[in-house]
């Protein structure tokens, strides 16, 4: 198997978000503040769900896994991006570039299918409430989460295996702050038309199909809830579905923009990449939490116990 770094390129040069020193410092402070505030909040969500017996339903189990996936996803590119703001040579090794590609698509793919598992959970809760406990048992939930990780792995490994077979002999500049397939394959010293088509199918078309399927399923659930008897439980279920739809739009919109088009550079690319890899993933669990009184109450109890332990 040919390796890209055996044909001349041992590293890639990342041009970053900006070449202006003042803008780089401003972005460093901005992202560091955001990262240091939102990352602990996601960790708190996981600790709260795991530590409170009142939050043992499948919905909260999936939410804790979503927060964990988002933390992992936002640990792939932001640390190096922050370090590169103070570096004159924003380089990444060939192996490091391939690792970024793998983990970004591995975790991103797992999150897509985790959201589909969450949609299935809402379908069972609304359409089959009497069988919800048996159909969404702990074993079934763990199987759905495991399947999401497995599908994400297969999605990613197929792309990486094909990319590492490409010969790279220069140039080696990526007009971005991390490695992604849309730009890396353009640097290959060979015809990549068929590979681009496969990447479009594996990433772009798959994302679009999952997006439409989720919208249709949540739309059908909302119509069913509206046609049913109005009650507090129905209103809560509808509110949960609306939040899920918001998260689907937030997560899928940048991915559709990036992968459902020809692999060329556009003016808004870097802005969309920042929201896609840094901002939106960490915000997803926060959006769920802000509208959920049960989690907020559980957080207050957890923080109250922590303060009590500190006083003792």
From TrEMBL:
Location in the cell reads:
Cell membrane; Membrane
Q: Show the Pfam families listed in the entry.
A: 7tm_4
Query: Which keywords does the record carry?
Result: Cell membrane, G-protein coupled receptor, Membrane, Olfaction, Receptor, Sensory transduction, Transducer, Transmembrane, Transmembrane helix
Provide the G-protein coupled receptors family 1 profile domain boundaries: 41-288
Topology relative to the lipid bilayer, per the entry, is: Multi-pass membrane protein
Identify the Gene3D superfamilies for this entry. Answer: Rhodopsin 7-helix transmembrane proteins (1.20.1070.10)
Q: Does the keyword Nucleotidyltransferase apply?
A: no
What's the chief localization of this chain? membrane
Q: Is Metal-binding set as a keyword in this record?
A: no
A single cellular component GO annotation: plasma membrane
Enumerate the InterPro entries for this protein: GPCR_Rhodpsn, GPCR_Rhodpsn_7TM, Olfact_rcpt, Olfactory_Receptors
Example GO molecular function: G protein-coupled receptor activity
Question: Which domain of life does this protein belong to?
Answer: Eukaryota
Q: What parts of the sequence cross the membrane?
A: 23-47, 98-120, 140-164, 204-225, 237-259, 271-290
- Record's family? Belongs to the G-protein coupled receptor 1 family.
Q: What is this protein called?
A: Olfactory receptor
